[in-house]
Amino acid sequence: MKKIINNPDNVVDEMLKGIIAAHPSYVKRVEGFEVLVRANAPQPKVALVSGGGSGHEPSHGGFVGKGMLDGAVAGAVFTSPTPDQVYEAIKAVDGGKGVLLVVKNYTGDVMNFEMAAEMAAEEGITVEHVVVNDDVAVEDSTWTTGRRGIAGTVLIHKIAGAKAEAGGDLQEVKRVAEKVIANVKSMGMALTTCTVPAAGKPSFVLGDDEVEIGMGIHGEPGTHRETLRSANDTVDHLLGKVLEDLSLDKDDEVAVMVNGLGGTPIMELYVANLRVAEVLAEKGIRIAKTYVGNYMTSLDMAGFSVTVLKLDAELKDLLFAPADTPALVQN
After folding, report:
1. Of 60, 58, 70, 49, whose CA–CA distance to 120 is shortest?
2. CA–CA separation, 324 vs 63, rounded Å?
3. What pLDDT does residue 219 have?
4. What are the pLDDT digits (tens) for 159-176?
5. What does the CA dihedral 283, 214, 307, 66 come to, rounded to 10 degrees?
């Protein structure tokens, strides 16, 4: 294992301290917990909290800031955060308007975030939650009942965060988040495995010319393995599965995210994005906004995912609203 770390047991703590050292005007830490919140938290608005296991950076701490998240909870690498961590995040960001939890659909995450919401309710804090399940690859898999939550989660942060920043009440923010969840679909592939620092060895093995199609962001199995194909053929497969799940007509507008998994050159992501744009243009589907880069990674895994969000006027306005976070600035 070759990694730029010190002690594997301290990697999450040192990562969080490093984020704060780089972005003190954006984030601060809840003392004694693996929780980042806005530097000016709490705000007098609905607060958004997300999180999960570490190893997916910049998700989720990189999206803490104006127009997106108010708090992010960092579990150990690929491990759900504990209920008390989430509870501390809720308390730290509550500005009296209620808190929305954005949870990726993994059994441990859902259970622990729901427990934290119950703990907060006992303290008089109004909490709602939504569960993201944008991965079209498989219905049930390791750690998950139903579809997994992957890179589409970032678009829920962006749009629901904009609604909260604009003054929407808790039910309005939840409604918008659920609308995004209903209209966003993703699918990914891996060229290589990833290595969890504490394990010190790859989480699975791929042959030299073998790729995994539809794997999860923790290295969970996908739909199948195959010999590496061209970028265009790979995109056609992933995007085809995504579009099968979306009800899109000619002249519909969408947002696109081509997301790197941590070990993929940006050059290759742009090559993939070109094919996404070509396919959608051929179908008469208009792209309102495109995001290309590392948004929801899997440590050092090489590979990418494609996310498509069907837009209406409300979602488009919120998507284009300003955001100011360490990992996403949008004017």
Report:
1. 49
2. 8
3. 85
4. 999 999 999 999 999 999
5. 180
- Positions marked active-site: 56, 218
* Residue 12 near residue 4 (C-beta atoms within 8 A): no
Instruction: Report residue 143's pLDDT band, with 50, 70 and 90 as the boundaries.
Output: low
DSSP 8-state symbol, 62: G
- pTM greater than 0.85: yes
> Which CA distances in Å does 278 have to 79, 112, 235, 292?
38, 42, 11, 15
Cα separation, 110 vs 79, whole angstroms: 12
Architecture of domain 184-313: 2-Layer Sandwich (3.30)
Domains 8-182+321-330 and 184-313 share a fold: no
Q: Which residue has the tokens 């923010």?
A: 173
**Alpha-carbon gap, residue 102 to 66, rounded angstroms:** 16
Determine the CATH number of domain 8-182+321-330: 3.40.50.10440
Give kind and range of the element (H or E) at residue 186.
strand 184-190
Quick one: what percent of the chain has pLDDT higher than 90? 93
d(C-alpha 114, C-alpha 28), whole Å: 24
